[in-house]
Fold this sequence. Notes:
By secondary structure, this protein is of the alpha/beta class. The chain is built from 16 helices and 16 strands. The protein has helices at 32-35, 40-51, 80-88, 100-113, 124-135, 150-153, 158-161, 180-186, 216-229, 240-247, 251-254, 281-293, 302-313, 319-334, 364-371, 404-419; strands at 7-12, 15-22, 53-55, 66-69, 117-121, 141-146, 166-170, 196-203, 232-237, 260-264, 275-279, 341-342, 352-357, 382-385, 387-388, 393-397. Strands 5-11-10-9-8-6-7 form a 7-stranded mixed sheet, sandwiched between helices. It has a 4-stranded antiparallel sheet with strand order 12-13-16-15. The longest helix is centred in the last third of the chain and has 16 residues, at 319-334. The radius of gyration is 23 Å and the shape is globular. The chain starts with 6 loop residues before the first strand and ends with a helix.
Amino acid sequence: xxxxxxxxxxxxxxxxxxxxxxxxxxxxxxxxxxxxxxxxxxxxxxxxxxxxxxxxxxxxxxxxxxxxxxxxxxxxxxxxxxxxxxxxxxxxxxxxxxxxxxxxxxxxxxxxxxxxxxxxxxxxxxxxxxxxxxxxxxxxxxxxxxxxxxxxxxxxxxxxxxxxxxxxxxxxxxxxxxxxxxxxxxxxxxxxxxxxxxxxxxxxxxxxxxxxxxxxxxxxxxxxxxxxxxxxxxxxxxxxxxxxxxxxxxxxxxxxxxxxxxxxxxxxxxxxxxxxxxxxxxxxxxxxxxxxxxxxxxxxxxxxxxxxxxxxxxxxxxxxxxxxxxxxxxxxxxxxxxxxxxxxxxxxxxxxxxxxxxxxxxxxxxxxxxxxxxxxxxxxxxxxxxxxxxxxxxxxxxxxxxxxxxxxxxxxxxxxxxxx
Length: 420
């Protein structure tokens, strides 16, 4: 084989491929991609095979501190298989419906969720906003949602700000469910003085309640109320694959009573960008139109839809490890009760751990800062990142690039700091 070498740096959608070597080569098919077991050598074969490009994986950076980032599962980085998929993705103009990779992603998502159709959107916030606005087309229509839901607390009140939809909050219980008595009381009768109740939103898993799982039995009760009052149901399923893993059920089972669902691909599933909304064909047609109005129409977006397909097909199978590591962390925190740490291990059902700091000499902000700062001495520093949610509560989230050894390092450093 005649080979012509040239070094270059490739910048494409924020993805920097280093040390690429261009060569002339025939197409090579690699069965390792189908098995999901992709070695560095097989990655080279895949890239040589399709584009005549030999990918040389950069050496990992070993200098500097060890960083354990537990702030969120949104900090995941794409796997090598995802990077290859991004490089090889077939693309087209998605606004025209011409991107084959996006179409494949939407078809895959609708099948997994057992809905008629699906729509790829840039973010979970947009997915929820589109869903609420599509269900509530009239200004002054009302959505009923948890008082500690993500839509209510962390999406800038977009349903009201941009959609003209009135939010009426329902009490969230500690397990993430809605107080059904409160829900019944707050569904308004038809009257010219009142807003028009249209939609009930349920969050699964429930972020603010520590990743709690919403079970099908609860959804049945919500569906009964919705049918009685002629309301629709939307599930904010940003982490619903975690819920399905925890329950050992197909994800479709958790949303079979919902009219629509939004899922996030860039949290525990590890894709770099995007969410999917699924529902009836007619609903998705309306949502697609609204997506364009909100600036969510994307063009040759197959380069990010490709890793999203891997997220659905492969990464969704690996979430139990994240749950095990979260439980491992919670069990380590239990041993620090005398040091001012309080945690309910039984509430850790998925990949989120919330714990309280009960000390007069140390605030949560100070502890989080110390965890992310170097210590005196030691051969290699360990920096641990977490989020101080309030003056009392700290959150840690596990994901596929955090392993049991990282959790042990976290526990050890936290204990050292609290003992000082």
